[in-house]
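Recall the central idea of this unit: under ordinary conditions, the amino acid sequence of a chain determines the structure it adopts. In this exercise we apply that idea directly, starting from the sequence alone.
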Amino acid sequence: MAVPMPSKRRSLVVQTSMDAYTPPDTSSGSEDEGSVQGDSQGTPTSSQGSINMEHWISQAIHGSTTSTTSSSSTQSGGSGAAHRLADVMAQTHIENHSAPPDVTTYTSEHSMQVERPQGSTARVAPKYGNAELMETGDGVPVSSRVSAKIQQLVNTLKRPKRPPLREFFVDDFEELLEVQQPDPNQPKPEGAQMLAMRGEQLGVVTNWPPSLEAALQRWGTISPKAPCLTTMDTNGKPLYILTYGKLWTRSMKVAYNILHKLGTKQEPMVRPGDRVTLVFPNNDPAAFMVAFYGCLLAEVVPVPIEVPLTRKDAGSQQIGFLLGSCGVTVALTSDACHKGLPKSPTGEIPQFKGWPKLLWFVTESKHLSKPPRDWFPHIKDANNDTAYIEYKTCKDGSVLGVTVTRIALLTHCQALTQACGYTEAETIVNVLDFKKDVGLWHGILTSVMNMMHVISIPYSLMKVNPLSWIQKVCQYKAKVACVKSRDMHWALVAHRDQRDINLSSLRMLIVADGANPWSISSCDAFLNVFQSKGLRQEVICPCASSPEALTVAIRRPTDDSNQPPGRGVLSMHGLTYGVIRVDSEEKLSVLTVQDVGLVMPGAIMCSVKPDGIPQLCKTDEIGELCVCAIATGTSYYGLSGMTKNTFEVFPMTSSGGPITEYPFIRTGLLGFIGPGGLVFVIGKMDGLMVVSGRRHNADDIVATALAVEPMKFVYRGRIAVFSVSVLHDERIVIVAEQRPDSTEEDSFQWMSRVLQAIDSIHQVGVYCLALVPANTLPKTPLGGIHLSETKQLFLEGSLHPCNVLMCPHTCVTNLPKPRQKQPEIGPASVMVGNLVSGKRIAQASGRDLGQIEDNDQARKFLFLSEVLQWRAQTTPDHVLYTLLNCRGTIANSLTCVQLHKRAEKIAVMLMERGHLQDGDHVALVYPPGIDLIAAFYGCLYAGCVPITVRPPHPQNIATTLPTVKMIVEVSRSACLMTTQLICKLLRSREAAAAVDVRTWPPVLDTDDLPKKRPAQIYKPSNPETLAYLDFSVSTTGMLAGVKMSHAATSAFCRSIKLQCELYPSREVAICLDPYCGLGFVLWCLCSVYSGHQSILIPPSELETNPALWLLAVSQYKVRDTFCSYSVMELCTKGLGSQTESLKARGLDLSRVRTCVVVAEERPRIALTQSFSKLFKDLGLHPRAVSTSLGCRVNLAICLQGTSGPDPTTVYVDMRALRHDRVRLVERGSPHSLPLMESGKILPGVRIIIANPETKGPLGDSHLGEIWVHSTHNASGYFTIYGDESLQSDHFNSRLSFGDTQTIWARTGYLGFLRRTELTDANGERHDALYVVGALDEAMELRGMRYHPIDIETSVIRAHKSITECAVFTWTNLLVVVVELDGSEQEALDLVPLVTNVVLEEHYLIVGVVVVVDIGVIPINSRGEKQRMHLRDGFLADQLDPIYVAYNM
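Accordingly, the structure predicted from this sequence is:
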């Protein structure tokens, strides 16, 4: 698996110090904090589990054949149980195979994926009774003989109209996402239907109390001195002993105060039945216990929650919602906890985010008033009132409250007492959270029923001394201990220096998370080490529990050490299909599970299919365990719908009837009931991820990832696994905290190995593997990883990983099939009039120049030089040009005669000083201004051919001067004219460093001109001769010069004059670069031809004064103005917040009729719309803003004129565009792309849409290349290479069929025409031209045509820190370059988000994501991205990226 390692700037490699021994808070992807592997303290002798595991996994990766025992190997004959399991499984296979398979039941994996041949339908109705005998496979009674025709009709009618969504996603008429077809070899359950399993009878012992409060009263009065709870300080010294007498009197005091001292006598705040919340820290179980029993005695309902530490705790807001929905108004807390809560300056406890307003009530005895002598709590028998509410966090982070009734509470205590064999005055050590789950049930409730003594070990002590619980077991000779796998694991890691440990007093070690897949290795390793210290194997009692069903199953303590615990070695592959297949331990892809004992006393258990109707599973099928018992929760508080789905389930037999009349409760655990009634759990419903129809469990994947050298790499075993939905399937994401001292190389190696391990063991691809610095994932209150918050951070791009590896290529398998190109319509297809295969041929034209009658005086001159001479004679003092400076004042102006005289002097200079012949080429290197115009006409007067060149940037000579030099050389300029300032610049030392200065042609400085006039002004012999050369760098980075003849130049000016109705009395504001294309024509030529005054605003001046252009437009009351996208962007960004102050300065844009953006690309609709919206308040008409279209072969094809309809916008289906089809859709529909018309077609221009490959004409609904025929087309490329074939192809193309006579120029842009309902100036229906993108830039991927801008738009929307984006292809890979506006820590957040959005919206897999600084993506003078330059920079490794991610 050789992959390029991602490259990263050094500054990104996070250096953090190792925290002072941080807690053993490893966490799995599941909500609770279980863990296997630990920190570097582990030595080979101590944590055998992890060592073996590594050996085992390395085998997976290197494929070695030697067998080693895995850490989950069976001890002392455990395989016997596995063999028994195998026997049972084997027996279940013998079944009547002659019966036809029944396709009617719900399969758990694919809802009905039945192939439907003609003439058969799949019935999805359950068949009752004897229906099977009556029907054939297709559901038609056998007896009736029906004719085949009718039969077929019946079948057609019965066939569902629409396929169900699960089956396949019809995303479009053409692009179908692949549907995972079920694997024909997948294992299917073959066993008989399972039988519900009953637990033993709940034996009623005579002295069991009628309620838990009664038990408390009894012990509190007859043995007040008996110890109930001993709490520890952080040094492990007993801090406080709570006796049963104190518990009884203090609980009474709390009960009395809650009921009588809150609110007033008439209006108490809390009445029996109300909910109150208990907020106690993890190190104060005594105060919690007193408050809890106080609530029970007062008959109010306690809702225990975690202490909120800050206003933004992970998950704290959802807890607030729970409290609000429970109607909680009072919070009970301890003194110390109350002091530690965050306070406002006035000492008030602030309202936490999402929480209701609470009254905080401290329960310490000294703050409470004594109850009167005659007051006693009302102690009655347990009934169906709610006793307490336990909170539960769901997969999505929402918090639910499970209500437990008083009778359920009591019955649960009785069932636990019977199952665990608790007796009076036993000592029990509790390490678990006493506020909920197993810790609450054993350590607070059942213990009181049996007058037991609980030694409570706080989490803070475990952090400092992981062995503390074992020491307390020895010290107190405890009979029972309640722990989690991680407590056993940390004890293993720390035990090596302990000598005097003796665990022989233990008769029961309850493993609360014994149902987790990695718990077995902790149990085995723990037994291995502590067997020598008196620990017996039969003492270890894993249990399974859930918030809804309370204790689901628990292994009973036995005295018989000969009976080994049950083991199952199951095939991982079978499990992903929900099928149990016994496998051998030697294999890697197996899951070894331990039993969690038997069903609880008094309960019935069964397993049902996880989705669909709750149907009983077969004996060899994995299902969700369901329990029917009194001792369970009864509802989710206040959520009747969800309650019904979870607490009121009636499992069905295959014949369709319920198995009992009593409802069952879904436990949320996946598993099966094995031989001998042993319960096996293989995962949680919450951790289930269904990837391409196969089920994987988050916990299993965590276990595999942890087994890959965790000690060396993962910080405290903290790994989270969850799935995100991308492109209609779940994708697996793994997030791990890496140790502070691990290197880049380590992390990359670990990631690669994890991917391989998961691939070989689970046969599933990982979509994204992210590493974050140690201690940065959001934590649950006991230090585990808060899974839903982690997922949220990942999805919103604020996880800040320090390493990311994405593997979309391997795990996204449902992309549409690559498109096979269909042969296009050839000349053989029917072509009638203007129709191609039934569609109107896409062609359109502007007004005919010959037909228009106007008093255009300039028409009688063939050459612009003559027009200027004529204007200098007839209107000498008419101002043609006004140049503004950055303050908005007039820097310079030119009248007709001034321009004429200036041009004459320049002509003399060219002939005398430059010794130029007519036809010589002259490069004009001027800043935007008046000198440039004069120099241009000077060249025409001297018969030379001018080329305008952008001067080098004084601050950036090294990169800008070579371009100048290149244009001068390529255009074969005989001389270079410029200003004195630029002359000096060209001869400077910096210039000499950038280019070879000696090879410049002669440089003429026009700041000092000769005083004489030329003998005569040159007049060209033929209008087809060359007038000027237009050089420009295209978006693909190609420098191309085109030849403009005198005839084309005059026709161009006339076309613009007509379209924009330009006359000498008009003023036009121009804020464009005057070096090429339409910008040059508007700046230099149009005023001379039409006589209007041009107000010239150099775009560079806007950098110092962004309002310059708009203020000028307002001040001169201009009706028409031209700008570029960069100018529009500058105004939108720079003036966004200043519209009010501009209004105050009198800025008024209400006179503007047309504001045209001069461009050579698809209109940037988002920019034009935000510009229009922003300046609407200043009078700008929203329909005034429009765009033009120009290209190399024709500098202006479209331009929004003064008359004619407003520009239109259409929405097209982006997926159809990839297939070169145009399909109009409604605004806002999925995959819709807004396109704005590129202005009106100019007079004298004809357009047709042709197929770029076959050159055939296309119909209206096709995307094709825009071809143009016009008198102002350029006459060819000017190159020194003489590339004739390209020349003739671009400038002289003919259609392959249809009108094969007309000569067209190919624009190189893809677009389409659409006939609208609007009417043109000449009364015809208006044809709108829409540009989609440049042909050169379009990317062919998977047989489809993608336009970079569409992908870029999606990417920019993906995260707030992405300011700009450019995409290109590199050897079939899509490369996405994003500019990051934010800290470098955010760089890696972008990788998954970019990959997701491109997959979702474009069905493409991103190959490389490159994160760079702002300004790296090159942009040309027109504001267009130079993607090819960027590509060259990427390939030459010149981008200095922050991060490069190679998606695998």
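The first helix runs from residue 48 to 62.
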